[in-house]
Write a structure and sequence with these properties.
This protein is α/β, with parallel strands linked by helices. It is about 50% helix and about 10% strand. The strands form two sheets. It has a six-stranded parallel β-sheet, with helices on both faces. It has a two-stranded antiparallel sheet with strand order 6-7. The mean pLDDT is about 95.
Length: about 425
């Protein structure tokens, strides 16, 4: 082990961050603890939010049962969702939420449903248009919401985004991703039951699992990583590298699903930490190409993860040793350059073994030159929204961003020579 691989703290280091008020995690916690939990909140009017796929899979049945036994009045709002919600979809949801008087919002679904739940709650208590609350270059961390929303319970049915523990919510407008961010949209309670993830299709298992891994590892290569985030990242990466292939092969493997649910939640914590600034360059690019090519967010972050590592290799090669060791690899005989190459190879192998090509050109229609044109929006706008000048070890410029995008298209890795 090399001492310089660990994060250190300066003498004047300060932390200021928020988490959900309460997290309930474990197999069958919906069956065993959901009814008592909602009773404790003294809610009189509940809105249950989900999507048509979740409803048709029967995932809501236990929640219906517990709500009915509790005697609490509730309505449901089921979205015909496909991917991240459009601004038009969100506006309709906000109008509905404002037209009623709900004192508890319960979101059951993937990251998009959980984000919609946060938005419906906070916007039911605040006026104006959602677009006016989005994060912009001029915000500088300013709190835009005056009022807290009603309580929320967030219940994930995937294991990837970590949205159940984050203070952000995204939406799409004109093929561009926007988001709101406020500690006022953190859930009152997060309930994470791995049993709700058993019906995930293989491709969703893969994509969301890769997103969880990206949430973690990209936080490790931040300039502001520290021992708290490092510990979560190493343990979470270990769980994913060990259990994601098993969850992909056998969706009914409860042990693998439990490990993935826990790791995804850990990834959400890392995303939420203000010093880690996940997303990094990987998420920055992924959140541009996803809406452009109509690709799932998790797939894009998974494709970008090895490129985000490769992009920063000259600056973080010593740090990557800890990640490779979390993959149960003995690194004592490896030089830093070999560590960087090995970690990228292992991630690429895992991606390809889950039937996902590593080159973007093998997934989408288009041209390399068209992709390279996106360097302008990365350099002129998006890198500043993600705080990359502050948090990214390597500074972005026209040349290295174009090389990065070219590598993504071709499935090559410039800095390690693959």
């Amino acid at each position: 082990m090399r001492d310089n691989a660990f994060s250190d703290l300066k003498g004047d280091y300060q932390l200021d961050f928020h988490n959900p008020s309460r997290i309930i995690f474990g197999v069958n916690v919906i069956r065993d603890k959901f009814r008592r939990t909602i009773k404790e909140l003294n809610a009189n009017s509940v809105l249950l939010i989900s999507d048509n796929v979740i409803k048709s899979n029967g995932i809501l049945n236990e929640i219906y049962k517990q709500l009915e036994i509790s005697g609490i009045s509730y309505r449901e709002h089921i979205f015909p969702l496909s991917g991240e919600p459009s601004l038009e979809t969100v506006k309709k949801a906000i109008k509905y939420a404002r037209g009623e008087h709900f004192d508890l919002f319960i979101g059951v679904g993937g990251g998009s449903i959980l984000d919609l739940t946060k938005i419906m709650s906070i916007m039911s208590s605040n006026g104006g248009d959602l677009i006016d609350y989005r994060v912009t270059l001029k915000d500088n961390g300013m709190e835009k919401f005056k009022n807290n929303g009603p309580d929320t319970i967030l219940i994930p049915t995937t294991a990837g985004t970590g949205a159940e523990v984050t203070n952000a919510a995204v939406f799409i407008e004109n093929k561009i991703k926007y988001w709101i961010s406020s500690n006022k949209i953190l859930p009152k309670i997060s309930m994470v039951d791995p049993m709700l993830t058993l019906t995930m299709p293989k491709n969703v298992t893969r994509d969301t699992g890769l997103e969880a891994l990206a949430n973690l590892i990209e936080g490790f290569i931040s300039n502001y990583a520290n021992p708290l985030s490092d510990g979560l990242i190493q343990q979470g990466a270990h769980l994913i590298f060990k259990h994601l292939p098993n969850a992909y092969k056998d969706g009914r493997n409860v042990s693998a699903r439990t490990a993935m649910s826990f790791a995804a939640m850990m990834g959400g914590w890392v995303v939420n930490f203000p010093w880690s600034s996940v997303p990094s360059v990987g998420h920055c690019v992924a959140e541009i190409i996803g809406p452009k090519y109509n690709l799932p967010h998790g797939l894009c972050t998974g494709l970008m993860l090895p490129h985000a590592i490769d992009f920063n290799v000259p600056y973080v090669s010593n740090r990557l040793r800890l990640i490779l060791e979390s993959f149960d690899v003995d690194t004592n005989a490896l030089e830093d350059s070999q560590v960087s190459e090995e970690i990228i190879k292992r991630i690429v192998d895992m991606i390809e073994n889950m039937e996902l090509p590593i080159a973007l050109r093998d997934i989408v229609h288009g041209s390399k030159s068209e992709l390279l044109e996106l360097s302008k929006i990365v350099l002129e706008e998006r890198q500043y929204l993600y705080g990359l000048p502050k948090f990214s070890p390597r500074k972005l410029n026209k040349k290295n961003v174009e090389i990065l995008l070219g590598d993504l298209w071709d499935g090559t890795f410039h800095n390690i020579g693959l």
